[in-house]
Please model this.
Amino acid sequence: GEDVEQSLFLSVREGDSSVINCTYTDSSSTYLYWYKQEPGAGLQLLTYIFSNMDMKQDQRLTVLLNKKDKHLSLRIADTQTGDSAIYFCAESIGGSYIPTFGRGTSLIVHP
Amino acid sequence: EAGVAQSPRYKIIEKRQSVAFWCNPISGHATLYWYQQILGQGPKLLIQFQNNGVVDDSQLPKDRFSAERLKGVDSTLKIQPAKLEDSAVYLCASSLGSENEQFFGPGTRLTVL
Model:
């Protein structure tokens, strides 16, 4: 199976919160990342969390990490239409800083 | 500050033809990466350079893919000959060093017919 798994689609109403979930398999993950990809553009690092942290908050973004269940989530508060994009979960393992990406979750924000 | 530049943005070729992609990283970035992103999947690392040396090319299909970064700045990725399964977006990224945040270019979308 895939090293990093995500659901493929999420649809939310503008102003609601979005929660994108991810599971990973390698317990030696060092960093876990969330990237955003808008149509026709490259990936943009949104945020990352070190594996010994449980939570990280950055403005509208909240990352939660459950190491026991190998589960990572990204919460976007007050979701806007400009947040519509594909969100990739990724992990780096051991001493490497190279991310291993999931398939991405397509977030659709409708009015 | 200018971002990572890639060209061309789109390329359509027939199978068995050759193709080359070009990447200009952010000025001063020592580390450069090439990723392959097949439709519906996340990017997968093909090769990582540190200045003009190869750090990791374990996932590069060396029978048909080659990459170089001769002067430690710009890089080219070549496919010769192309196969149908090479259809993908090829992303270039750069970082100050291997431990720093990667900045991605817009990619080159390759279609092999």
